[in-house]
Specification:
Layout: E1 4-7, E2 13-18, E3 24-31, H1 45-52, H2 63-71, E4 76-81, E5 86-93, H3 97-110, H4 115-133, H5 136-149, H6 162-165, H7 170-180, E6 186-192, H8 196-207, E7 229-234, E8 239-247, H9 256-267, H10 273-280, E9 285-294, E10 299-308, H11 312-325, H12 335-352, H13 356-369, H14 376-384, H15 388-398, E11 404-410, H16 416-421
Parallel strand pairs: 2-6, 7-11
Antiparallel strand pairs: 1-2, 3-5, 3-6, 4-5, 8-10, 8-11, 9-10
Helix pairs in contact: 3-8, 9-12, 9-15, 10-11, 12-14
Length: 426
């Protein structure tokens, strides 16, 4: 798979990825904007703005006008907000790329931010926050990052706090848009069964007139930790949800790929170490998984599980023991595990990249967050280069008490914190 990259005169980056075997195409516009660019006064506005982009423009004055056009071509339209990026996409037949670019450019340049629509969507956002609060399996990741990053933009919920969502108004949206939604802080990726030259010309037509503005930068994260940390979110639940992990490294650090392989060994599938020890061998949890997550200036390897409230101590102890095993001489990772983990990652990645939407997301993230763009084949090669010695190095470097953090959602009080801290002895 190969890509073509051009930069318009206003700084907008355009990436086209021809996939000749497909009849579909995805147009994705990704912005270097997200919750880490927010303040205490507007926390949640990145996500709120993403919603408001669908609520009408000068040319298409209602949400129905926009959705009717997309439905009329059998397309899929949606958006997403993270801590460092916000994306808007339409996936359709490749013959409708023109309309997709038209709609997305209109949404991002001409949104009305109608006061009545803001008020209605405010209610939607508040209910979305309620949904997350009532779904601990989804909420635990946010709670874990709150434990890691504390009262900083990186530790705040992407959805925001209810009291702030209730206060955001039209001028707040306009101000935020002007500080981050500049063309040189955006990338348009079109992937699928496309003609490259025609697609580049259409992108220039719809986005070339977008005016460039000065953008806001985020404050680099300063991480300070000298001992294990436990963060508890009290909630009456039938099941306790835990996230147990260690601080690691930023996105472009050389340890990125060894950590990815290590996370697959620990909790990347039904034959992984944690799945076997926590679920299959002891019946402690329904779900248990591990991921290695990275931002531009920080990262974490974390294991998530929903466990029996009466056996949460045992589950924590088992996960800690598994972290210890990968850095021990007797129980360290074997060659067979390394090979399986690498094939697991490569297989899942390539299956995912059969979808034009995933391909667009792959290249957009590379362009916005990394200094160089790797093709999928480059990523596969980097995974293949990971050796047993690399796994041992990262295990010994990061599985230390000074990097360990536990977040838990359950029917606990403050007294449980010391109890859990005693279990975190690597």
């Amino acid at each position: 798979m190969q890509y073509n990259r051009t930069v318009l005169s206003n700084g907008l980056r355009v990436i086209t990825v021809p996939m000749p075997s497909l009849q579909s195409a995805t147009v994705l516009v990704m912005v270097g904007a997200g919750s880490r660019y927010e303040t205490k006064q507007n926390n949640g506005i990145s996500h709120f703005l993403e919603h408001m982009a669908f609520k009408g423009t000068k040319k298409r004055p209602s949400a129905l006008a926009i959705s009717t056009l997309v439905d009329g071509i059998g397309g899929e339209v949606n958006a997403f907000t993270g801590k460092e990026t916000t994306g808007y996409y339409i996936k359709s037949l490749a013959t409708h790329v023109d309309l997709s670019l038209d709609i997305l450019s209109d949404m991002l340049q001409n949104s009305l931010f109608d006061k009545a629509e803001i008020q209605k969507e405010r209610g939607v956002i508040l209910e979305e926050i309620n949904l997350y609060e009532d779904t601990p399996a989804r909420k635990i990741g946010d709670v874990y990052e709150q434990a890691l990053y504390g009262d900083t933009p990186m530790g705040w919920d992407i959805a925001g706090e209810k009291k702030i969502i209730r206060s955001i108004n039209q001028s707040d949206f306009v101000s935020y848009l002007n500080t981050l939604y500049s063309p040189h802080n955006m990338v348009v990726v079109v992937a699928g069964g496309i003609d490259v030259e025609k697609t580049e010309a259409l992108t220039t037509r719809y986005f070339g007139g977008m005016k460039r503005s000065q953008i806001k930068r985020f404050k680099p994260l300063i991480e300070v930790q000298s001992k294990p940390f436990v963060f508890i979110k009290p909630k009456k639940t039938e099941q306790v949800h835990i996230a147990l992990g260690v601080r690691t490294v930023p996105l472009e650090h050389p340890h990125h790929y060894p950590l990815a392989v290590l996370s697959a060994i620990l909790g990347g599938g039904m034959s992984s170490r944690l799945f076997h020890e926590v679920r299959e061998k002891r019946g402690l949890a329904y779900y248990v998984r591990t991921s290695s997550d990275h931002y531009q200036d920080c990262g974490s390897l974390v294991s998530l599980a929903g466990v029996d409230a009466k056996r949460v101590d045992e589950a924590i102890r088992v996960i800690v023991e598994e972290y210890n095993k990968v850095k021990s001489e007797k129980l360290k990772v074997k060659s067979s595990e390394l090979i399986k983990a690498k094939e697991f990652i490569k297989g899942h990645m390539m299956l995912e990249l059969e979808d034009s939407k995933s391909v667009a997301g792959f290249y957009a993230h590379k362009e916005l967050l990394e200094r160089t763009i790797d093709n999928p084949s480059d990523v596969l090669a980097k995974i293949d280069k990971v050796e047993l010695s690399d796994i041992e190095d990262v295990a010994k470097s990061y599985f230390t008490p000074a990097r360990l953090n536990l977040a838990a959602i359950g029917n606990f009080d403050g007294a449980n914190r010391q109890r859990f801290e005693k279990l975190l002895e690597l």
